[in-house]
Prior knowledge:
By secondary structure, the chain is α+β, with helices and mostly antiparallel strands. The protein has 2 domains: about 1-130 and about 225-250, no CATH class; about 135-220, Tick-borne Encephalitis virus Glycoprotein, domain 1 (Sandwich). The protein has 6 helices and 8 strands.
Amino acid sequence: MKGRTVSFLRAMKTLLHMFLSLKTVFALFLACMAILFVGSLSLTSNLAFFSGIDETPLFVWLSNTGKIGTIWWIYTLILLLVFLAVSTLLCTGEALIARFTMQRLFLKLSPQIMHIGVLFIMLGHLLTASMGFKSDVLIKKGETRAVTDGTGISLKEVTVWKDRNGYDTDWEAIFTWSQIGGEPREAAIRPARPSYFGDFGFYSKAVVISPEAAALIRVCRDPGAKWGLFGGMLLSLGGIGFLFGRFAEDH
Length: 251
């Protein structure tokens, strides 16, 4: 029993050293680049097949796609990113323990802050890919449509502005959003002017006023957006600290 424990600890130590090695990180980056190159060739050869990948959360799209021979590179890339995230997490933890001193703490730990920011960005993408929601709802004025279980959208008014030649210059859709246990909430959306209620975002894709007023509204739920934004802020903050630290060392 003692021999097995020692062997297990040695194996774990070897695995830890492997993940902490820069050679491992470089190898993972090279592997990701190679898989991305293969994927780019696959995308251009199967444009119709991949046409819906941007319209659906990634894991939902993968679960509804049965052509493993065409999408194997996506699964391989996800696995490589998992290994890269684990390596980044372990390297960051080791550096935080080794470099933690109160003197010039922010400047010394700025690379690790950047790493943590990248990890939060990856977490955001993971949450969106696994729990995100996206749907285009075509709805007529005065109509109510269910979007998800317990949520619904009603179109109240559609307005279109035209120039003197009769071309559309802008439009607006006023709608009401309701959820079980909450009060209905009203909002107006225009092109490039979405509205947000909680985790849901609403975007105006198109409207018509003849023969019946109607609107095409995209409803999205992006649970990883906040985490990605937080990660981006940490990445920027760490980058500023890193550059400032290098400037201070040179002067």
